[in-house]
Design goal:
With 365 residues, this protein is of the alpha/beta class. It folds into two domains: 223 residues, Type I PLP-dependent aspartate aminotransferase-like (Major domain) (Aspartate Aminotransferase, domain 2), CATH 3.40.640; 127 residues, Aspartate Aminotransferase, domain 1 (Alpha-Beta Complex), CATH 3.90.1150.10. It is 36% helix and 16% strand. The strands form six sheets. The protein has a seven-stranded mixed beta sheet with strand order 1-12-11-8-7-2-4, with helices on both faces. Strand 5 and strand 6 form a beta hairpin. The protein is globular. The protein starts with 10 loop residues before the first helix and ends with a helix.
């Protein structure tokens, strides 16, 4: 089976984990600090605060931003539910925004429509392609959901450095992995201090060695074991990004002839550099994505759907915006198909995926 995704792990990660185990220091120590420093340098920000998951990063960021309960946050209608869940669980009101199905990112015109009536925006850099938010942070508070976007850039600026904070995930399907883990990036020193406090029970250490608790917080720390893996993965980052670009270019070349049969390939705006965390096409209109997944599986190719159309999910049915038309989101939800991007995918495997996809389209005609 040609896998959808597969983390690249090796002897370096094994040795790094063993070193941590021998040290006896397993939580929030020098490895976490080193991992944070490497991430900050890569993203081009002053501070990175590592935490236990990408979802934890979203929750911490919203808490640190000190939005008032009931304030309104614009969220794309097409994303993984962790984005909207973080908004809801913070006591805020999500306002769903339609997307451009050619990029799977926020529709700029739809965002403009609601911008005067929201208190912040949580754009998602979907599948590793930066959302069109240049200049947005000058008009409202922007907390980036950059879960898929470590190494992506927009107009020469790194994802995670485009808003007041950026939130990353290191789940095994992301560009680098720590197994589970996340991080928040920011240039704001006061926000960084707040984030560090909130991730560790709201606890501060005093100069005399005692502890004090100034406000409630979570246990969202990252372990030294996870951070050690992350340090090794950062050494691989440039190579991993180059490999994803090679895979995406390979698909572009091989799948271009299928455009005449209605297949639509992802579009990358001129000023954006994606990570290709996922390579997501849109199947011909009127065709069934599950039937494509089944056909590819029979051919030995793992595939899946894209993100989630939030306005179609029962958990969010009563939210603002769920009853109005979302044509871009509907198109993505009905047609998005994610193809394999596993590290090291060979030319022969790319050929096999393209052949299987072409066969699936022919079978559906």
């Amino acid at each position: 089976m040609i896998r959808l995704a597969k983390p690249l792990l090796g002897e370096a990660e094994e040795q790094a984990v063993a070193e941590v185990l021998r040290s006896g220091w397993l939580v929030q120590g020098p490895k976490v600090a080193e991992f944070e420093s490497l991430l900050a340098a890569s993203i081009g920000v002053n501070h990175v605060i590592a935490c236990s998951s990408g979802t934890a990063a979203l929750q911490l960021a919203l808490a640190a931003a000190e939005f008032e309960p009931g304030q309104r946050i614009a969220v794309p209608a097409y994303t993984f539910p962790a984005t909207i869940n973080a908004v809801l669980l913070a006591g805020l009101v999500p306002v769903l925004i339609d997307i451009d199905p050619s990029t799977f990112n926020l529709d700029a015109d739809d965002l403009e429509r609601v911008l005067p009536d929201v208190d912040g925006v949580m754009p998602v850099h979907q599948f590793g392609l930066p959302s069109p938010i240049e200049g947005l942070s000058e008009r409202t508070r922007v907390v980036e959901d950059a879960a898929c976007a470590l190494g992506a850039s927009l107009g020469g600026r790194q994802a995670g450095g485009l808003g007041v904070m950026g939130c990353f995930s290191f789940h095994p399907r992301k560009i680098i992995t720590t197994g589970e883990g996340g991080a928040i990036s920011t240039d704001d020193a006061a926000l960084a201090d707040k984030l560090r406090l909130l991730r560790n029970h709201g606890m501060a250490r005093n100069d005399d060695g005692t502890r004090s608790f100034s406000e409630p917080g979570w246990n969202f720390r990252l372990s030294e074991i996870h951070a050690a893996i992350g340090i090794c993965q950062m050494d691989r980052l440039d190579g991993l990004l180059q490999d994803r670009t090679r895979i995406a270019d390979g698909y572009e070349e091989r799948l271009a002839p299928l455009r005449q049969l209605g297949l639509e390939l992802p579009r990358v705006p001129q000023d954006a550099v994606p990570t290709w965390q996922s390579y997501v096409v849109r199947v011909p209109r009127g065709r069934s994505v599950p039937s494509f997944i089944a056909h590819l599986c029979e051919a030995g190719v793992e595939a899946t759907t894209g993100a989630t159309a939030l306005h179609r999910e029962p958990a969010y049915a009563d939210l603002e915006g769920c009853q109005r038309p979302m044509p871009g989101t509907d198109d993505a939800a009905d047609r998005a198909l994610a193809l394999p991007v596993a590290s090291g995918l060979s030319d022969d495997e790319l050929d096999a995926v393209a052949d299987a996809l072409g066969g699936a389209i022919q079978a559906a005609i």
